[in-house]
Amino acid sequence: MIVRTASINMALTAVIAAVTATPSRAQEFHVDIDRPNEAKFVAETNLADIEGTTERIDGFAFWPSGELIEGSDYEGSEFYFEVELNALDTGINLRNRHMRERFLESDNFPYSIYSGAIDSVHTLAATSWTVYSSGTFTIHGVEKPTAISCPVSRAGEGFHVRCNFDVLLSDHEIPIPSFMGIAVKDLVHVELDFYLTPAE
Amino acid sequence: MNLSYRCTVCALSFALTLTTFPSLANAQDRPTRWSRQRETVQLDVETFHSTQSITLPTSQTIGKSEFEFEISHRFFPPLSSGPKGLWGLDGPVLMRLGLSYGITDRMTVTLARSNRADNIDLQGKFRLPGIRSENFPLTFAVQAGLAWNTEVPGRVAGDNRNIQYYGQFIFNGLVNDVVAVGLVPSYLHNVDVNTDVSETNVSLGGYVHFYATEVLALIGEWNASPSRTGFENNTAGLGFQLETGGHFFKVIVTNSPNINPSQYLPGTPDPFSADNLRLGFNITRVLH
Question: What's the whole-model pTM score?
């Protein structure tokens, strides 16, 4: 009986060890604000494109395994990324002011936010993946369910994330900028390029 | 005995597992270590939208590495000339062409030329730190300039008497994001380049911009100056301003045809009355 009990417990220990050994540990990653991060939007007009950029991206990503493995279960994963809208620079101070005050109303809604969870991962190469996610994109205080897939590559202990997606201004109740026949198109292209580093 | 032994082995095994593989304990924990890593961006205090009122400067500067191009007109014949002179639009016209450059977000240099005495004006503006307030933010700037009148009758262009210089303090405030007000005391050396005497002039200017909508403002300005021959009256102007993300369009009526600072600061011969009002406009465009 004693031998049987000991065997059961050894087996249990071995099973738990096997389950937890691969992947190695749960992980939380934060945006590495010391790396060259960039959030950019491109808005088309009937005259020329308007680009706005900022390096002020912040947030975290968390998933139990801390590794990106195709076919793994990402139940329990969570991420939250925000871009500070007052820091967006279109190259002209006056235009920045108009964008902040008239359209984004960044005094009231200072951040654009994408939060949600990882749905799945597709392996592209040994150290690069496509991460499929779904969640909520918020800007101008208006939330919209959004699904985004982002190429991700290993960068040291962390990851390099690059996302491209489109946003309809009308979905977020942002007035369409126009003046004297020159108007911004409703569809605005957004690019995010940032680094994640393991949380300390 | 067996039960006690079993429990002990179980507990030891589980403890060993947790010690060896700590992630099992926190694998599903919500992250708690993240918090915003930086303070939010602190934007500069701003009161006026444009770098100029009508002719007087505001405390606003253009951004670093930005250019601002200006073309301004003052139609010499008054509105009272009627349809025969197309209310002054037939001209002649006094014109100012200018180009500004932002050395920093707070410092702007401008080179401009008026066709009156071929006045070439080089000026620098420096914006000082403002005072933050919910209902009445204040901003300040200093401006100084040098004017070279290259076409003065009876005098060669390089004559020292053709040089003028000036300095201005600019005090601006914004009431409830709707009404912007400004005061501009100015000092001018060598008031009238057509005389042989270098006089100085101290004037006090003021202006108000009422932001009726996000793009439209009603604007008014006056500049009070001691009366002297040829400059018997204070200058004043009224009009409206349209703005886009890069342009300002100002359409005004004024009793002064002069545009460059060294020429409008001393005053104007004509009083601000219906018979003497002239049409004018300023157009500026910020380039990057």
Answer: 0.80
